[in-house]
Specification:
- It contains 11 helices and 14 strands.
- The protein is of the alpha+beta class.
- The strands form 4 sheets. Strands 4-5-10-6-7 form a 5-stranded antiparallel beta sheet. A 4-stranded antiparallel beta sheet has the order 11-12-13-14, sandwiched between helices.
């Protein structure tokens, strides 16, 4: 195995482009190192990106959003008070990945590129409208997070490409987001269903919304019908019922030992209602319910 510690993204991309066989990038390592120890994966080339300038930075964009380095851990995001005030749902979702020890190393980008349908950070990122900068020999491009996973363990990244930056949009006024998941145990388990919701209000009326579901399809789903069910409402009971119905209708889950198709489909609707209430409370300045 070839092990590299490049000091620039250009060097990392050049190494990845020239590499033969299986190539993996190492940021937090909570996926790739576990897979290596379990003999699930043995990379021919392992590229440690932690020596590249800026990969551990959390900074404001000129527009008021956030740029998050690809090696920023979940624990570091949790400790960043301003980021947590703007995007509590995204921070909370990342903080749900694994144990305290895992959270000290795991990254949003690793969670995204591992491409598990049950990833916790990804539905919250999608709901927030997060984009990532994808870099390769042909230059860079901005890609919506929902367009990165293409199936379990698969992404849209081409050979030699890597994600070099995460960008959260400006929070703006009167907005709120939330992420909830259902797991069989109280901690350190994989989501049976996950739901991220981001919305904005004018007075008490919802004017914008994004709803994302995890673990109910081969990739995380951005459910436009669920968002439309609550836009223009004050999140009354009728809107919540329509939201639940739309979320459940979007599901195409599998049966496995953690949950049946029927159970996952039902829980998706329930979580959508609960996450919407929290996001709405945050947007309107109420106490989270």
């Amino acid at each position: 195995m070839q092990y590299h510690t490049p000091t620039s993204f250009d060097d990392a991309i050049a190494i990845a482009t020239q590499a033969d066989g299986v190539t993996r990038f190492l940021a937090g390592g909570t996926d790739v190192l576990v897979q290596m120890r379990a003999d699930i994966l043995t990379p021919d080339t392992l590229i440690n990106v932690k020596c590249i300038d800026g990969v551990k930075d959390i900074t404001r964009t000129p527009e008021g959003g956030w740029q998050i380095g690809i090696a920023v851990s979940g624990a570091e995001m949790k400790e960043h008070a301003e980021l947590g005030r703007d995007w509590p749902g995204v921070v909370e979702a990342t903080d749900l990945i694994g144990s305290t020890q895992v959270q000290g190393r795991c990254t949003m980008v690793g969670n995204l590129c591992n491409a598990s349908p049950a990833a916790d950070a990804v539905p919250a990122m999608v709901a927030a409208g997060t984009t990532v900068t994808v870099s390769g020999l042909d230059g860079t491009r901005e890609v919506a997070v929902e367009d990165i996973p293409t199936g379990p363990g698969k992404t849209s990244l081409a050979s030699g490409e890597m994600i070099t930056r995460v960008t959260l949009p400006p929070r703006g006024e009167n907005g709120g987001d939330a992420y909830l998941r259902f797991i069989p145990r109280t901690e350190m388990d994989i989501a049976v269903v996950g739901c991220g919701i981001n919305l904005r209000v004018d007075g008490d009326t919802i004017t914008e919304a994004r709803v994302a579901l995890g673990a109910v399809a081969p990739t995380v789903l951005l459910v436009e019908e669920a968002a439309q069910a609550i836009i223009g409402t004050t999140l009354d009971n009728a809107a919540l019922a329509a939201l639940s119905e739309a979320a459940s209708a979007a599901c195409s889950p599998i049966d496995d030992k953690r949950g049946t198709i029927k159970f996952r489909t039902h829980v998706a609707g329930v979580l959508a209602q609960r996450a919407a209430r929290i996001a709405y409370a945050r947007a309107t300045g109420q106490k989270d319910s």
